[in-house]
Specification:
This protein is an alpha+beta fold. The protein has 3 domains: about 5-135, Orthogonal Bundle (Arc Repressor Mutant, subunit A); about 145-200; about 215-340, Umud Fragment, subunit A, CATH 2.10.109. It has 14 helices and 9 strands. The strands form 2 sheets. A 7-stranded mixed beta sheet has the order 4-1-5-6-9-7-8. A two-stranded antiparallel ribbon has the order 2-3. The chain is elongated and about 105 Å long. The relative contact order is 0.06.
Length: about 350
């Protein structure tokens, strides 16, 4: 920013602010002065709505000319020619606005291209994108330079090579020749006039990406102690498992069967869970239906009696599930967290009948 402009952006009095408002209202000067004045007012605490009400400059227009003014200032810093500055001080704020994403050197080179080709805002936007794209390449494509003109020419050349439609291919070749800066870039594009082979670009397939949305989508892996009837020693010797987030990976050092259980809150809260398999008619109370194998999840970390819970205890050397109305004298081995019934498997033949399908 020039020394004069820097001093203009310092604190101003209320009288000076009103004079700036008056100047904007009557649109004195060109857009660079409007952008500078809008920036001065905003820097001094006047919001965009206040400025709009007193000058008629809408908020979006204020933003455009302030940003374009800063781009214009960067051209001055890069010692742009008087001819170039004069061109853009005309009604070209929208073109400079599109170059805001570039650094100072790129802005100067791109503005010179915009001046030479007399391009409008939409094409200036494409020019800025081309400069950004080619600047991200670790290795420049053969025959092209990092100059903004060559950047536009390169994108046109790359797209033209893949076009089968002759009319669209010709349009891109013409566009490339319009912008080509280096002789080598121009020569590369001219070769497309006689080379009609099409290089079909094969895009890589999309990765099959999913995200877990809830806890119960990811199961908790639990060690299996065995089947009822079960000895106390086998139950207690079953190793504990530690899982590593975020995918609950389990590493085991011993030979042990593991069963996945949905990540419900009660399952995740269990401090030292162990699974035992038994028949449903071996439970202390009937759960109805035909006898079937069920999974009993026991938390060995909880051994305090609670009247509202079932517990695992030892009776004559074997494990048993019991509920106690009063605190028991026997040793509690663990809390019964849940009894899990197996998923019902429908007859596969029934799935072929529409009337058997769920709504």
């Amino acid at each position: 920013m020039t020394e004069q402009t820097q001093s203009s952006l310092s604190q101003i009095s209320a009288e000076e602010a009103q004079e700036i408002m008056r100047s904007l209202l009557h649109k004195e000067g060109n857009w660079t002065e409007w952008g500078k004045h809008c920036q001065i007012l905003q820097k001094n605490g006047y919001n965009a709505q206040d400025i709009f009400e007193q000058t008629g400059f809408q908020s979006s227009h204020q933003n455009l000319i302030i940003v374009a003014f800063n781009v214009y200032e960067s051209l001055i810093k890069e010692n742009a020619s008087e001819e170039l500055l004069k061109y853009f001080s005309g009604p070209r704020s929208d073109v400079l606005y599109e170059l805001r994403v570039l650094n100072q050197k790129q802005r100067l080179e791109s503005s010179q291209v915009a001046y030479e080709k007399k391009i409008e805002a939409d094409e200036a936007s494409n020019l800025a994108k081309a400069v950004q794209e080619i600047s991200r390449l670790s290795q420049l494509p053969a025959d092209f330079t990092r100059h903004p003109g060559d950047a536009m020419a390169y994108l046109a050349w790359k797209r033209a090579k893949n076009k089968r439609d002759l009319q669209e291919r010709t349009r891109l070749i013409v566009q490339g020749l319009k912008y080509a800066y280096s002789p080598s870039a121009r020569e590369a594009i001219e070769k497309l006039l006689s080379d009609f082979s099409v290089i079909t670009k094969v895009n890589a397939p999309l990765l099959p990406i999913y995200r877990l949305e809830s806890e119960n989508e990811l199961p908790r892996n639990v060690p299996v102690a065995g089947n009822f009837p079960l000895d106390k020693s086998k139950f207690e010797e079953t190793p504990s498992l530690e899982s590593k987030e975020p995918f609950r990976i389990v590493n085991t050092q011993v030979n042990c069967s593991i069963v996945p259980i949905p990540g419900w809150q009660s399952v995740l809260k269990a401090g030292d869970p162990v699974a035992i398999f038994l028949q449903s008619d071996q439970l202390p109370t009937s759960i109805g239906g035909k006898p079937e194998e069920v999974l009993l999840l026991v938390d060995r970390s909880i051994k305090e009696w609670n009247i509202s819970q079932y517990f695992l205890i030892e009776t004559e050397g074997k494990l048993e599930i019991k509920w106690f109305e009063n605190k028991p004298e026997c040793t509690i081995l663990g809390l019964v967290v849940l009894v899990l019934r197996p998923k019902k498997i429908l007859d596969e033949n029934n799935l072929l009948e529409p009337w058997q399908m769920d709504d």
